User: Fold these one by one.
Assistant:
Number 1:
Amino acid sequence: TGDGDLDPPAGQSSGGSGGGASAGSVEQAGNITYRLIAPGSAGPYPLLIVYSGVEGGANMTSNLSMVKDFVGAQDFVFAVLDGVTYNGNGAAGATVLDAERALYDIDNDRTYLLSESAGTTAGLELGLQLRQSYFAGYWVNDVNANGAPMLSAAELGFQPYGNVGPGGDFVDANAIVAAMQAADYRTPPPAPYDGPGSDTHGDTNQFIAAMQWFPGKTRQ
């Protein structure tokens, strides 16, 4: 499509307003329930949409709160969907993405997606199909399924970043990375992630590696 047609436009932000600081409050976007972490400072902000695993949205939100400063994501807005409740429902994440862009001044080039375990199928649908052009980077963590990007980087007008934390499922992890690479995604090594926790489902080390991966990545 080329940069001129990129949705949302490169080098801009959403211009949203009205959202305040939040430390994990439960919010509604239409009929979708999610949890919100947001700084009280001025934007534009990076945004990370998260589909939790079976630990649930509340536990995932707590985990994010604990690691965000440590991994350099203290200025992020985080919107967390329960991966069990919204299993396979990528549209739920699209609804929350739109809500956050309306409430906060979100950086169009620094919007990210993390899905984990039970949230895998919904994340793959949201990040690789429904709203592919929105995400500068997508880390698929503790996978239990695989998928492929709908559009190539050339068709999108930019090269997204992608990676997978296998959590023991190396077959699906390798399949997703291969599909991302075939679509000319940027997959800096190791891809799939092969460090501590890569062979264990639900390992904290792999989660931290995923969180450290996002800051600094941009669609540009």
Number 2:
Amino acid sequence: ILVDPRNPKILLASAWSRENKGGGGVFRSEDAGVNWRPAGLDQHAVRALVRAPSNPDILIAGALDGIYRSRNAARTWDRISPENHEEIRNLDSIAIDPRDPEIIYVGTFHLPWKTSDGGRFWKPIHDGMIDDSDVMSIVVDRTNSRRIFASACSGIYRSDDSGVLWRKIQGIP
């Protein structure tokens, strides 16, 4: 659930069906959650939803079938990941660089990916991570956007170079 920083009564929520039968999408409330209406991506299983810290109109949604962006606060959505990509699907987490909304990090069922150009080109960023690590959460440090944290099945990782190399944080079981 996202709260609009300009108006706390406006909420956005992502949804997906456990049965993966096409249920889900993004939903909007303008009365602090009393009433909800569809806000796009109908029938997509949307498992992650984030707002760009530098521009509240930019939203990124991660679904089972890929990554979508809205530049107008969920009025319209465009796919920004390649269709039917073998790896960039089954999204668990998304983070947007706090200064540049074109830099997006995503965690998939397998490993993390990054785009620096708003989704035109994606590259895997998993050096230092144990292969086959579901990336359940990914966070960019607001004070140093080169520092990123990711939680995965194999542990918690930190990168100090925008995802080029990851180091497992020791001491966490």
Number 3:
Amino acid sequence: MTTLSALVTTEWLHNHLDDANIRVIDIRGHVLPASQPPPHYFAHADDYAESHIPGAVFVDWTTDITNPDSPNGTQIATPDAYAALMGRLGVDADTFVVAYDDANGMFAARLWWTLQYYGHERTAVLDGGWAKWLA
């Protein structure tokens, strides 16, 4: 893997799906406006179960990468919790992570940022996300 761009194309991903050091993470979800009744945060696990990029694993952005003990529940997961999640997902120091969502990159970028925050620079967001992959 020579790319360290923050984005990869659907064509690039298609050509690298079988690479042993690639982990594709589906992090689809949505947020309701504050004017709506709670809850406001949703992950799209059912959509993942219905269809996803081949080999992708699912991350629930509302619980998996957040700290439930933080005042509003949206702070980044603790280092130990985050490391445990990445271990369960098969992400190690040599893994190139590609994240995608169905929200114009909002959640994929959050995963990208949290990986960067914890020192994992081998990560990118799928340009165009789920919609472009389908197209």
